[in-house]
């Protein structure tokens, strides 16, 4: 596992710093895009502790080869995976539809940002949190 931060000391002993754990989960989503990777990153975003931009920054810090366009392709896998892949983790029905919708939206944002950069436009940073 990739680490940029010192472990956090807890009663059970040292544990991975949350930023490092999240960066590793982003790497997993980027590299393999399993149902559990989508579920973990979705939970991370919904916790409110990290924004989409923060997750992208952590992924880029952990992997210098991280490419947002390839990550956007990985996000597209959320709609391609069998519902049973998610069901084994208790994500079914409307919860699965919502998860897939959130990742489809993120994918569109990444692709739109990339299109703007390719056309010579840079997205305006309003300083607001996304996610």
TrEMBL record:
What one GO molecular function would you report for this record?
A: transferase activity
Which UniProt key words apply to this protein?
Answer: Transferase
State the name under which the record lists this protein: Nucleotidyl transferase AbiEii toxin, Type IV TA system
């Amino acid at each position: 596992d990739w680490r940029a931060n010192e472990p956090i000391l807890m009663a059970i002993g040292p544990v991975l710093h949350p930023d490092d754990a999240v960066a590793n989960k982003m790497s997993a989503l980027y590299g393999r895009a399993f149902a559990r990777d989508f579920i973990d990153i979705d939970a991370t975003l919904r916790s409110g502790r990290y924004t989409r931009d923060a997750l992208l920054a952590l992924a880029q810090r952990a992997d210098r080869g991280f490419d947002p366009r390839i990550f956007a392709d990985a996000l597209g896998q959320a709609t391609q995976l069998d519902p049973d892949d998610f069901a084994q983790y208790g994500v079914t029905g409307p919860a699965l539809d919502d998860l897939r919708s959130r990742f489809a939206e993120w994918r569109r944002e990444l692709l739109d940002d990339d299109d703007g950069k390719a056309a010579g436009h840079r997205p305006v940073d309003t300083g607001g949190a996304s996610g």
